[in-house]
Amino acid sequence: MTARDRAVWDPAWADTAVRDPAAPDRAIRETRPDHGAIWRLTLAAAAGTAASLGAIGLTATSAWLISRAALHPPVLTLMFAVVAVQVCGLGRSVFRYAERLTGHDAALRVLASIRVRAYTRLERLAPAGLAAFRSGDLVGRLVSDIDSIADRWLRVLLPYAAAAVAGAATTGFVALLLPSAGLVLAASLVAAAAVAPWAAGAVARKAERRIAPHRGELNAASLDLLRGCAELVAFGAVDEGLERVCDADRALRKAEGRSAAGRGIAASVTALAAGGSVWACVVLGVSAVRSGVLPGVTLAVVVLTPLAAHEVFGGLAPAAQQLPRIRASASRVRAVLRHPDPVHEPSLPLPAPAPPYDLRIENLSARWSAGVPDVLSGIGLTVPAGRRVAVVGPSGAGKTTLAMVLLRFLDPAGGRVILGGTDITELSGDTVRGIIGLCAQDAHVFDTTVGENVLLARRDASMAQVRDALLRAGLLDWVDSLPLGLDTPAGEHGARLSGGQRQRLALARVLLAGFPVLVLDEPTEHLDEQTADTLTRDLLAATDGRTVLLITHRTAGLELVDEIVRIEAGRLARPGRLRQAGAATQA
Ligand SMILES: Nc1ncnc2c1ncn2[C@@H]1O[C@H](COP(=O)(O)OP(=O)(O)OP(=O)(O)O)[C@@H](O)[C@H]1O
Ligand SMILES: [Mg+2]
To answer: In Å, how far from its chain's centre is CA 400?
Structure first.
């Protein structure tokens, strides 16, 4: 099995963070913002620096003003300090607002660009490639993991950049007043910005890295529980289902607890650094005033400025502590972005062939992953344009697999499929799916109205065309009998529709799309015999004149097809047996 094949089918292996320690760095590099966002982030960092300097300057000037005012000097000598207090006070708020505005704008741009890339990738992976990810976990990757990546810029790098400049300027200023106090401040700021997150990391780095995967596991287990709730209740297995969720929850809580312990340690180091620096500055300042090195009026400035600087630095450690979690999230998103294509798209796809769309399947074999036996082998079938062929066979024979190959959702392992004279592997998947339409075995009904569900196939279709498609699918009478008609909500997964209505809705969708070649995969699945017979006849009547491959394991109701072929264990049992329309058949 090649690395590519393994990555397609093994989610743990596909998760690059699990097996490649350098992957998080590559992941971070790959999710870097574009130039526009970097420019905005730089502006935000500049505004953040100015806001921090404003906050520190406000404390320093206020401290000087209060001390100086206590000596009752002429008011005019205080004017400069009064103006400075006003400028710093106003500047702090204005620049903080500008920082939030530009910083969030940049972060939202980063988010949007990564999300669009991830969704574009998912579109390429669906449906075969998505089997490598569990849906709840995938939702976690698309939502919270991508949010975390934006946090790296907004909540870590940006505050660090602003604090570094403001901290250096403040340290320089305090050192000018009293060099020893400047040294103390520099050391305490390094402790708050670097030692505190390092100490937190020593306790919780491993836990931080595990939080994102544990959250993905909890999402997946919860979704599984919700989806399978009815079955679990029916089989009395609710406790086991809940236990899985509880296990995932316990693992996540343990990691979160460890992370909180790390945050606690970081908070104590930060508080110690802030308090220690203030006390050290009091001691150094008082002795400097006593020895005449420092004017008494600036003592308050030397003591209170470090306090203001530590307020700016206070949020850095908890933010930096999240870096391992952010790196793990970036890896998980990268695993989606870098997941190998389940189907090879040609580098120079041929243009769409012209009608008629004869379909020729030659010696076709297919498998779902490398290293496993072929699901289909030696399939040969010719379906001239306009012919209707039923593909029958027992469950697991490979009928849906054949549909997946025809739709370019799965590459042939051998042999060819020729559509209108062109090998489909030389066409892009979208081109093939513009000609061949699929009514899937478990077609998804969206949680919107019945009308919207049909319109999905052709957004520019008129109401008359939607109604015509519903009529041909045998659903119009039912829709018209509803008080809300086409505006009736279908419910989640079509929960407000019966099984037969769901199938007919899916059929109406493909009829509206007007594909010249149709693959109908088990359209009568889950229906009672009588309804299934009626639906089969209805859909064959509705697709008259088109090329149809009707996949079914039912043999009744097939009088209208031109040919019936049977697949057994991946092989054509009676290849190309021509069947006269109207004759009874036992497949
Ligand atoms: N996504 C998949 N990943 C891996 N193996 C798959 C996948 N889908 C199908 N298979 C395997 O391929 C084989 C054929 O499955 P397929 O779905 O084509 O059968 P089928 O004839 O459509 O059955 P049914 O009538 O029950 O729908 C089965 O052994 C199945 O386990
Ligand atoms: Mg099937």
So the answer is: 28
